[in-house]
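TA notes. Do not distribute before section.
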Amino acid sequence: MMDDPRWLPLESNPESFNRWSASLGLDTSPPNGYRFADIWGLDPDLLAFVKQPVKAVLMLFPVTQAYEDMRKQQDEEILEHGVEGVQDIIYFKQTSAVDLPSPSARNVTTDRNLFQTVANACGTFALLHTLANTDVPIAEGPLTELFSRCKDKTPLERAQLLTQSNELERVHEETAQTGQTAAPALEADTDLHFVSFVEHKGCLIELDGRRNSPVNHGEIKEGLLEDTVAVVKRIIELTQSIQFNLVALSPASDEDE
C-alpha cells in the first residue's frame, strides 16, 4: 500500500454498510444478527419505524465553515480539559495533512508518521467505530483481529493499523465500486463526512476520526436514537443544510430479506 492511501468513498446507504460489515464477519441474519437500515426522518412517527434496540446511528452531512469553526473550538477544549468516560473506547484518529497541529501545540504529537490518513475513508472509520464499540455478533476474522490489536494502541497508532490492512482495503474498494451509483474517481475529494453515535456506560458518545477525542454528549435520557436525533438537529441547524443521511444499526428481521 502506498504511504498516503486514497480510497473510494463509500455510499451512505444500508446496502453498502451491510455488504461491508457482512464481508468482515458481522452477523446480519435474524434472529440474533444486526443490520443497518435507513432512518427516514426525524419526526417521532418516522422514528417509530426503526427497530429497537438501536445499537448505533451513523450520520452523513456536509462539512461547512460553521461546522468546522465549532469542531475546532470543541477540540481546543478537549485538549485543554480532556473528556471523561471515553478512555476505554476503541477510537481511530483520522487526520489529513492540513489538520496537523503546529510543532508548538501543547500536548499534541506531531510525528508525521503517526498522522497517516486514508483519504475518503471516513465511511470506513464510522463503521469501524460502530462495530468496535457495540456488542453486536462478529465472527472471528480480520475485523476482530484488528480490534484486538487496537486495545493497547493510541488512536493514531490504530489508524496506522488500518492503513496496513490489505483485507480492509480490499473490502472497502469492492463495496465502494458496487454501490447504487457510479463510483467517483479515486482522486476525487468529498466535503461530506460520516460520524457515528454509540452508547457507552449509559452516555451518548460521538465518534469522529477528525476530532481530538470521542465526544461525550452526556447521559442518555430518552434512548440512543432519540438522544442522537437531538444532536443531529443541532448539526443540521449549524450547517444550514438538509443534505444529510441517517442510518441505524438495529436487529435484523425476516422483513429485511
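Switch to the second chain here.
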Amino acid sequence: MHGFLKVLLPVVFLAVAIGASFIMIQSRPEAMQKPAPPPSLLVSVDVAERRPVRFIVTSRGSVSPRTETTLVSEVAGQIVEVSPAFVSGGFFKRGDVLIRMDPRIYEASVKRARAEVAKAQTQVATEHALAGYALEDWERLQRLDAARGPASDLTLRKPQLQQALAELESKNAEYDKAREDLRRTVIRAPYDGMIREKIADVGQFVNVGAQLARAFAVDRAEVRLPLTQQDLRYLDLERLEGGGTLPVTLHAEFGGEAFSRSAQVVRSEGVFDATSRVLYVVAQIDDPYDLDRPPDEPARPLRIGTFVAAEIAGTAGGDLFALPRHALVRGTTVWVVDEALAIHPREVDVVRTDDEFAYIAAGLADGDRYVTTPIDQPLPGMKVRLDG
C-alpha cells in the first residue's frame, strides 16, 4: 500500500498542475487588438508657380538642300580631267573647275570662225570702196547730163554693201558661238556646294545634255515641318507674310552625340496636304555643314538627310502654371498635398499640353504642392510621405 501511494501521488500532483494551468489560460482577459495603420505612400512633389509662358510648337522633318542641280554637258566630247573634289561628298567653291573636256575640236572651230570674220570684214571694206567709186561715177555723169534722174540703190551698190554687212554679222555670231562652245568645255561650279552623286568620269565621251553629276549648295539648307490645325493656334504665321521669321531650334543626333542648331522659319507652303491635312512650313539653316565655324570650335554639321526634331517659338500664353504632363491625371486632375501630408484631387483648367508640359490657367495657387509621382488608385485624404 505504501508503495502504491508513492507512485500515485506524483501523478495526481502533475494532473492538478496541468488542470490549474488550463483554467488560468482560459480565464485570462483578452487584450484589445488595434489594426495597424497602413504605411504612408512615398511620393515626389513640386511647388506650383505661375510664370509668363511662351508656347513651343514641336515638329519633325529631314534636312534637304535649298538649291540642288544636275550638272549636264553643254557640248559633246571626251572628259580629259576632273577635279579632286569631283567625288561623291566632295566640297567645292563657286567657280572651281570640276571637269575639263577635250578642247581641240572647239579650238579649231574658233580659228575657222575667226578667219571667216576676217574674210567678211574684207568684203565689207571692198563693198564700201566700190560703193564710193559708184557714187563718184554717178556724180560725174550727172554733171555731164543734168537731166538724168536720181541714182538707183543698185547703181550705188547699196544692196551689195548691205549683204556684206549681214555676212559679217553672221560670221561674228558664228565666232561668238565657237568661243562659247570652247568655254563650255570647262565646267565650273555654279555655287559653293557638294557633289551628291558622281555620274561621269575621265575618259568618258559625253553628248550634249549628258548628266555628269548631281550637286547641291551648302550655303543654306531647309527642313519642311508639318503643322496640325492645333499647332497653328500658337504660331504667328502672319509674320512670315511680311517677310519676318520665326525662331526655331533643331535637335539632331550623330554618332550617339546629341546637339542643337538654331534656324529660322522663313515661309509657309500655303496649302494643306490633301492626305494628311497638315500645313508645311520651311525652316532655313545657314551653313548647314558648319564650314564657317571658328577653327577652335567643334563641328556640328546638319548633313543633308538628317532627321531633326524642331521646337518653334510660338505665341505668348500669359502667366500660367507649367506642370509636367505626367502630373495630370485623367486630363484635368492634379493631386495636391496639404499641410497634414494628405492628398486631395484638384480640378484644373488646362490651356494646352505638349510632349512635356501641361499649361494650367486656373485650379492651382502659387505655393501649392502637387504630386508628380504616379499613384495607383489614389484616395482623397490618403497620407503620404515626401521624397527628399
